[in-house]
Specification:
alpha/beta, 6-stranded mixed β-sheet, 43% helix, 6 strands
């Protein structure tokens, strides 16, 4: 019995020690958050294999996107105005569009995307999807509600629309789509103003208002939680094909 209580005490002390380290050590917090994100992603993959069901996000109609944006969006940002990004598209059109979008955002000076060849440790991964879901692009961001900072992000460019000639996407509009999704990856939300963040059509490149919004976002206080426990939330936003 004494050994049992001794074991319980050791676990309790370890838990308290981890909680203190999580609260006070940024490296511990970032590592724990990334482990939690990877575990969550692995669980979803395992679930889809066992059940035969795919994890999907339902896109809103064009009218809803134009007027309301995304109900499941979660506000957040990176700790600093910079993030590493992994880009490795097999399709050269998407590869070039992604690289151009990164270069265009970097040229504004409001945010720095740094390319990395390490997919596992990248803050943001740019990849593809091929779904008839009314979304030319889609971004999923995981945010730690304790700190208000992003943990990881995935940007999807939808080949079902962007590479289908019947939808008439020029190279310029594909780049605009990539810029839009990277805007979400920085923390920008949809707007109906003339902006790269307009949710439908991919008609606009980066505007001065977008640069101003990024500067404002990264000079303001983050929206953090008063809870002492880490809570990873996932935000999904997209660009509507039109």
């Amino acid at each position: 019995m004494r050994r049992f209580f001794g074991t319980i005490m050791l676990y309790a002390l370890a838990f308290i020690g981890f909680g203190w380290a999580y609260q006070n050590n940024e490296n511990v917090r970032l590592t724990a958050n990334r482990i939690a994100y990877v575990a969550q992603a692995d669980f979803q993959q395992l679930k889809s294999r066992v059940t035969g069901q795919k994890t999907t996000t339902t896109a809103k109609t064009k009218a809803q996107q134009q007027t309301t944006g995304d109900d499941d969006s979660v506000s957040g940002r990176w700790k600093k105005a910079m993030a590493t990004v992994y880009v490795n598209y097999e399709n050269q059109t998407l590869q070039q569009a992604a690289l151009d979008a990164i270069a265009n955002w970097n040229a504004t000076g409001c945010f720095k995307f740094k390319q990395t060849s390490n997919k596992k440790n990248a803050d943001i991964v740019m990849t593809t999807m091929d779904k008839d879901n009314d979304a030319a692009g889609l971004t999923q961001m995981s945010v730690d509600s304790l700190t208000g900072y992003f943990v990881h992000g995935t940007v999807y460019l939808n080949t079902a629309y962007l590479l289908n000639s019947s939808y008439g996407y020029s190279m310029e509009r594909i780049i605009n789509t990539a810029e839009h999704e990277l805007g979400h990856a920085m923390g920008l939300q949809h707007t109906n103003d003339v902006s790269v963040m307009q949710p439908a059509g991919s008609l606009y490149t980066i505007q001065q208002r977008d640069i101003d919004n990024v500067n404002e976002l990264y000079s303001s206080q983050v929206n953090s939680s008063s809870s002492s426990a880490s809570n990873i939330k996932v935000s999904t936003q997209n660009t509507t094909n039109q």
